[in-house]
Each structure stands twice: as structure tokens, then as C-alpha cells.
Design brief:
The protein folds into 3 domains: 76 residues, Orthogonal Bundle (Multidrug-efflux Transporter Regulator, Chain: A, Domain 2); 109 residues, 3-Layer(aba) Sandwich (Rossmann fold); 74 residues. It is α/β, with parallel strands linked by helices and 319 residues long.
Length: 319
């Protein structure tokens, strides 16, 4: 028997009318705001109400979208679900089978600290990174279950100062996460020690846009000399994305993949030039970094296209 996941109310319904803004619906269902807008245009999944550019969804739509999200994760394309009733969706859920893992859209972020949580509440949703988990204190984070921390790419934490023991504790509890420490005060020695241990540092106050950019940028924002953005997709995965696209929707992913491949090739060329021209190390190192960052931005755009079109990655993840 299918039991839908509980819909935890993060913020109060608009004007106590049981309506939820699109950003809230995205957080409750796990469906990005970009995807909801695309489904509205393509499949007629319209919100209950619109106020200018702001979309509002009611409780029934929220429940329906949650079921659709579950079925999509099990391999059902959105095109086969958009017109189904609630009963029909329930029937599909009864016979659903697991399917390949879908392409991840955005870096998954865990937030720690009251100031960061308040900053999120006061800001609009970001198209650079997605907040997946939230904790009020570092103690709450370290006491949380491993399952709650699984799947996070970045841990953004607000700290009064850069305490080495606290940073070490965070890294031990989230060994697969990049730690981004937002601090008020810190000595140059503490900042250098944090960066030496792989922790990125950001000075408070910081805007939400800048924080999400730092979370989305591999190695922190801005990129520092000598670092390149890691690849999101292997060559096999890029080919699989293009091959799975429907003929009428294939042009955009094909062009994006083409540009990504060109930038990958140019990054390799820059690396070779760096080796062959030691006198121009600084120039080619910067070209290599900036090229890899441009490629990372295109990969992020491709991941949005892949999510909207429900393109799964089945290829060998090794490049």
C-alpha cells in the first residue's frame, strides 16, 4: 500500500488560504521551480492561482506533485503522468518499479546556523544550488542521522570564528562534502589553516546570491589559482543524455554537449601549453581555470535540461 511522504509545512500558507508559493512547493516536493514552470508550459500543470509573476499552489496540487515526483524517480516520464488523476497516480504507484538514477540538477547544500537559515527565508530560490537539509547548530548537525547527511555536496556553516576543532568535527561527520565556512571574525593564520585543510571561507555578511554562487562553484568562489572545476559528466554520460532525448527535443542538449566537449578539449590544450611554456605559467593557468569554470556552468545548464526532459544516466560513470 502506497503511503505518501508527509508534507512538512516549512512556511505558513499564503494568507492562511492553503496556498503555497512556487519556491515553497519546490522545497516540499523536491521539484525545482524551473521544472515546475517548464511543466506548466509544456504539460498544462498550472498553479491554482497567479498574482502577477508569483505562482501559488493548493494542498491538492502539492499532494499530486509529490506523487508525480515519486513516480519520476522510479522511471516514469512526466509526459505519461501529467494528465493522470490522483487515483490513476496511486494505481501506478502500487505497481511502480525502481529505475535508473536521474541526473542531479544542482549541487545539494546543507545549511547550518541561524543567520544562514534566516537569510534563506528572506531570499528567493536560487538557480545555482539547492538547499536540501538545514540545522540550527553544529551540534544538531553532528547529532543527526547519517541518512540526513547523505547526498549533500556542500556544507555551508555559520561560525563566530574559524575554530580548527569545530571545522575538523564538521569534516569528520561529512567526509564527502565540501565545507564552506561563513565567519564574522578570523585571523589571517586561521583563514590560511582552514584553506589548507580544504575548507572554503566566506566573510559575513554575505548575500544569498553570493553564498549560493560559492556553493555552486567547485573549489569555492572565486576559483583560486591552480584549481580547475571537476567534471560533472563523463564522456559516456554526455553521449547517453543526447541519445535519450526525444527527436524534437534533441537540439538543445546536443548543442550544450558539443560546447562542453569543446571546452573540455580546450582545457586539456591549456594544460599542455602550461607544461610547454613555463615562462607563461600564470597566463595559461588562468586560462585553464576560467575555461573549466565556463564548462561547469554549461554542465549546470545541461543538468536543468536533463531534469526537465527526464533524461537518466545509464552509462559507465568513468570518463
Amino acid at each position: 500500500m502506497y503511503n505518501p511522504p508527509p508534507l512538512v509545512q516549512i512556511v505558513r500558507p499564503v494568507e492562511d488560504q492553503g496556498l503555497y508559493r512556487i519556491g515553497t512547493v519546490a522545497k516540499l516536493t523536491g521539484i525545482s521551480a524551473e521544472c515546475l514552470r517548464a511543466w506548466e508550459r509544456r504539460y498544462g500543470l498550472t498553479p491554482s492561482r497567479r498574482d502577477g509573476k508569483t505562482r501559488y499552489y493548493d494542498q491538492l496540487q502539492l499532494a499530486r506533485l509529490t506523487k508525480i515526483k515519486t513516480l519520476i524517480e522510479l522511471g516514469h516520464p512526466i509526459s505519461s503522468l501529467a494528465k493522470l488523476s490522483g487515483d490513476q497516480l496511486d494505481a501506478r504507484l502500487q505497481h511502480a518499479r525502481p529505475a535508473p538514477i536521474l541526473v542531479s540538477r544542482l549541487p545539494q547544500v546543507g545549511l547550518i546556523g541561524t543567520n544562514l537559515l534566516m537569510l534563506e527565508q528572506e531570499s528567493t530560490e536560487s538557480d545555482q544550488a539547492e538547499v536540501a537539509q538545514r540545522w540550527v547548530t553544529v551540534a544538531d548537525f553532528t547529532a543527526s542521522r547519517t541518512a540526513e547527511r547523505a547526498g549533500l555536496d556542500v556544507l555551508a556553516v555559520m561560525l563566530p570564528a574559524l575554530n580548527p576543532e569545530e571545522l575538523d568535527q564538521l569534516q569528520r561527520h561529512a567526509p564527502d562534502c565540501r565545507v564552506l565556512a561563513v565567519h564574522r571574525f578570523a585571523s589571517e593564520t586561521a583563514i590560511a589553516a582552514a584553506r589548507a585543510s580544504g575548507v572554503q571561507t566566506v566573510v559575513w555578511p554575505v548575500s544569498w546570491e553570493s553564498l549560493m554562487h560559492a556553493c555552486a562553484t567547485p573549489g569555492g568562489a572565486p576559483l583560486h589559482a591552480g584549481k580547475t572545476a571537476p567534471r560533472r559528466y563523463s564522456d559516456h554520460e554526455l553521449l547517453a543524455i543526447v541519445q535519450q532525448a526525444e527527436p524534437g527535443d534533441r537540439d538543445t542538449p546536443r548543442y550544450l554537449v558539443g560546447m562542453i566537449n569543446d571546452l573540455n578539449a580546450f582545457t586539456e590544450f591549456s594544460t599542455q601549453q602550461l607544461i610547454e611554456n613555463p615562462a607563461d605559467t600564470e597566463v595559461y593557468d588562468r586560462i585553464r581555470e576560467d575555461t573549466s569554470y565556463a564548462r561547469a556552468q554549461l554542465e549546470r545548464a545541461l543538468s536543468v535540461v536533463a531534469e526537465v526532459n527526464q533524461l537518466a544516466v545509464n552509462a559507465n560513470p568513468s570518463a
